Amino acid sequence: MHDNKYPLVNRDISWLSFNQRVLQEASDPKVPVLERLKFLGIFSNNQDEFFRVRVASLKRMVQLGSNRSKSNDDPKSILNKIQKTVVEQQLKFENAYQDILKELEKRKIFIVDEKHLNLVQGEFVKNYFHNKVRPTLVPIMLDKDRGFPDIKENSNYLLVKMSKGKKLANPRFSLLEIPSEILSRFVVLPDDRKGRYVILLDDVIRYCLKDIYQIFDFNHFEAYTIKLTRDAELDFDNDVNQSHVEKISKSIKNRKKGLPVRLVYDSNIDKDLIDLGIKMLKLGKEDSLIPGGRYHNFRDFIRFPDLGHPELLYEPLPPLPSPDLNGQRSVLDVLRKKDVFLTYPYQDFCHVIDLLREAAIDPKVVSIKINIYRVARNSNIMNALRNAIKNGKQVTVVMEIQARFDEEANIYWANKLQEEGAKVIFGVPGFKVHSKLFLIKRREGRGYRHYAHVGTGNFNESTAKVYSDYSLLTADKNIADEVAKVFDFFDNNLRIGSYKNLVLSPFNLRKKIYQLIRTEIKNAKKGLPAYIDIKLNNFCDEEMVFKIYEASQAGVKVRIIARGVCSVIPGKKGISENVEVISLVDKFLEHARLYVFANGGDELYYISSADWMGRNLDHRVEVTAPIFSKEIQKELRQLYEMQFKGNVKVRNINGPIENQYRKSASSRPFRAQNEMYKFFQKKLNN
Rounded CA gap, 154 and 315, in Å? Predict the structure, then answer.
């Protein structure tokens, strides 16, 4: 198969379309207004990472003289499309923000700038500035002869122009970092009869510029926000004397000085000021110069202050206890009788923490092994492991310190656990460990029994409140004993092991999926039930796309739920008439991976840590587990059908990726995430 015959959506263009769906939520007047602000923050954060990783990668390809990416697209052409799309999205972003401000004002909530403070507010801001802000500021005077100072990537800076006299001649220039990592980006001002007021930290500083530069005799100040994004790729040298951790630590420091890939600036900035910045940063035409609004780093708006207006947020859906574990004295006792399946954030991640806490104090538990990719800042998972060590358990932690942007946190926890006495394994050479496993070994009878966790999401109690993921807790030997083999492989990379049930990347997941698709094709030709239902974050592996096209042409019905990137073009005559793709973007982030194959009427269900991307299939350690329990299979089927039935927050994905909302034959709104919560409520109460 060749891509000129079988069309694909470019990965990066598809990703921009996904972020457009996030922007749709921010622009939707039916979404509570403070939630809309959060979606602007998510959009901004997503875009930052996109430039740090994907745009940086394309720029490297251009610099190396490559005229084709893996998907046979011209990198320079893709960069041009990205630039055009990002500028268009930035305009929509600014319009959405202005609409949100108007909606807030209707509810007597005002985000004010330094030019609209009354006397009481002005005095409050001055006091706040001198007590809290001024000690954190490091103003840097700019000199054309000295060049631009090293500035942090993705931090907000004010580029300041100072002058005096009526002609404003002989200006001086300065740079100020907005200290939003130290102080809140938002300052709530004293209330008055008209309403609630909030000012951004940026404008607190603008209001007090004369105080900052008081040693100069300036009487005119202008300050505009800029933000620089750098290449986030980690480069490793071949120094054999350095440990893996040392190399990562060194690379993180180098990342902070990576090549610039984007400069975002206030579109109202004076031309001489932005020209100065571009010249001193040594940026060229090929660099992404994005005119934006007055404020950058909207990711801070995810933490906009609670002003006591619950009606401006989504109604909270607190995680529910599992019916299997609710009120039970021992999780291990339950697992000896049956598998337990958890779906977050509808059900409580605390059950997983409870299981580890129980294992930490159970006198019959000998060891706990876990692989870590990303954990919460104040991690209860890590505390449970430390407690297990203190109780004499052998604790092994496979720490993936190349989890992008979490490297420093993972190095911190690795050192902490080693100090406590844990055995820490730093991943697998040449591969990222992305699986979501832990294993408890317990003395029972004359031998030992294994209890295992296989999941789709990280061991992170913070993200488990927002990310939709699956956890399988099991003592089934068919699964748990094979999880033990995976940990043997982590300990000794030559001992890969053989598996009848678990499927591992990079060793046999691609091969297994090909085999399952071929079975569906054969069954379709025989007139047997033949369909594939998939739920993924991202689907852009070309060969996998071509296999889906091949299945469609054979008459296999394929349904795909893809939150993010999807290179499949459904409904293409002669290629993909039997393929349907939807995307669900709502209050919870869809993160679970599920593969279902008809298998001639005896359905096969798998949950996985792997998306269908080249990196997951060929360059990461991922674990895919079969679901044997008919009860759990039935639940997964019900949940999948709910999402496909959705006619609210669901978009049809097609070739042009127009993100059209899905229309349903039913006139009744069906919002899948809300219906899923009701499903688990009913299950708990039955």
Answer: 32
**Candidates 296, 351, 434, 591; catalytic one:** 434
CA distance 73 to 313: 42
Query: Which domains are present in the chain?
Result: 11-312 (3.30.1840.10), 331-500 (3.30.870.10), 504-685 (3.30.870.10)
Confidence of residue 627 (pLDDT cuts 50, 70, 90): very high
Residue 434 bears catalytic tag: yes
CA-angle at 73, arms to 71 and 79, nearest 5°: 120
Residue 511 CA to residue 332 CA, distance in Å, equals: 35
Mean pLDDT of the 660-685 span: 91
Kindly report the backbone phi and psi dihedral angles of residue 404, in degrees, each rounded to the nearest multiple of 5, phi listed first.
-55, 130
Residues whose CB is less than 8 angstroms from the CB of residue 88 and which lie 6 or more positions away in sequence, other chains included: none
For residue 246, which phi and psi values (nearest 5 degrees)?
-65, -40
Cβ–Cβ < 8 Å for 348, 320 = yes
- φ/ψ (deg, to 5) at 624: -115, 130
Model confidence pLDDT, tens digit, residues 509-526: 999 999 999 999 999 999
Q: Which residues make Cβ contacts (< 8 Å) with residue 339, sequence separation at least 6? A: 472, 473, 474, 475, 476, 628, 629, 632
Distance CA 68, CA 88 (A): 26
